[in-house]
Write a structure and sequence with these properties.
Blueprint: H1 11-25, H2 27-40, H3 48-67, H4 69-75, H5 84-111, H6 119-130, H7 135-159, H8 164-177, H9 185-202, H10 206-225, H11 227-247
């Protein structure tokens, strides 16, 4: 099935969107409820957030994969799109393209006066520090769901009606806003745009999924292990830019 031939917002895709939205909103009820249950059993109620994230994201992913089971099975026999070898190359290159896009967007944001460092990322790191298994959500489950929702479904539907640039731009901005970090809309949009390019280039959703999973894992691990060193590097970089800016 060609990317342009996907039925606009099929019934199954609509259900997936509803599942994703419900999962995102479920924490407003699930976290307080789970915190109460943990307190009843003498456990740390502060673990309700990572517990609920793992539970809700895992259930959502299982439901989505079940809904897409026929499509996944059919895709095994399709010849449309890049070959296996080419897809691997683009998947690996995609990681560096995404990191480059992120770096470029971060630099532009800094020049516009936006503080360096994403609040969304910092919140995720705090959750992982409190419960390391939560890295499965930020590095594996989350990226898979996001690529299915924002690239396969949302971008795929837009791409049937509009040129690539417009489709990628709209879906990427929505992807950025979904991260609830409005200061860094440009940064997340740049990343989303890169993943949309990978999807169109290879016609295999697994390619942007691989790039997204790998990039998120690298970012989380680096910021967790080398957090103190990164803080020093960021302060030094800001000092150098301010110094250079004084001459310009």
């Amino acid at each position: 099935m060609k990317l342009k031939e996907i039925t606009i917002l099929k019934k199954e895709y609509g259900i997936i969107l509803i599942v994703y939205i419900c999962m995102q909103l479920s924490s407003f009820v699930g976290v307080p409820l789970l915190a109460t249950i943990l307190k009843w059993f003498g456990k740390n109620p502060g673990l309700a957030v990572p517990y609920w994230l793992i539970l809700s994201f895992s259930i959502a992913l299982l439901i989505v994969l079940y809904i897409l089971r026929k499509e996944i099975y059919t895709a095994r026999f399709e010849r449309d799109g890049s070959s296996f070898g080419v897809s691997i190359i683009w998947a690996i290159m995609g990681v560096f393209l995404a990191l480059f896009a992120q770096s470029l967007a971060a630099n532009i944001e800094h020049r516009l006066g936006v503080p360096m460092g994403s609040e969304n990322t910092q919140q995720i790191l705090k959750i992982i520090n409190s419960y390391p298994l939560a890295i499965l959500v930020s590095s594996v489950i989350g990226p898979i769901l996001e690529e299915i929702v924002f690239r396969k479904i949302l971008f795929g539907a837009l791409y049937q009606r509009f040129p690539f640039f417009i489709s990628a731009l709209i879906s990427s901005v929505i992807f950025a806003l979904a991260h609830m970090d409005p200061e860094h809309v440009l940064l997340y949009s740049a990343i989303g745009f890169t993943f949309a390019f990978l999807y169109v280039k290879t016609k295999h959703i697994i390619v942007p999924i691989f790039a997204h999973v790998t990039m998120n894992t690298m970012v989380v691990l680096i910021q967790s292990v080398y957090r103190d060193d990164l803080g020093i590097l960021i302060r030094d970089a800001q000092s150098v830019q301010n110094f250079i800016g004084g001459f310009l």
